Amino acid sequence: MKRSSIFLYGVLCYVLSLVTFVYTFAFVGDLWLANSLDSARSAPLLKASLIDLALLTLFALQHSVMARPAFKRWWTGIVPAAAERSTYLLFSCLALIAVVVFWQPIGTVVWKAESPAARTLLYAVYVFGWGLLLFSTFLLNHFELFGLRQVWLQLTGKRYQPLPFRTPVLYRYVRHPLYVGWLCAFWAAPTMTVAHLLFALATSTYILIAIRLEERDLVTAHPEYEDYRRSVPMLVPLRAGLPVSRHGKLKLSNSTTIRT
Question: Containing domain of residue 27, as a range?
Answer without folding.
Answer: 3-259
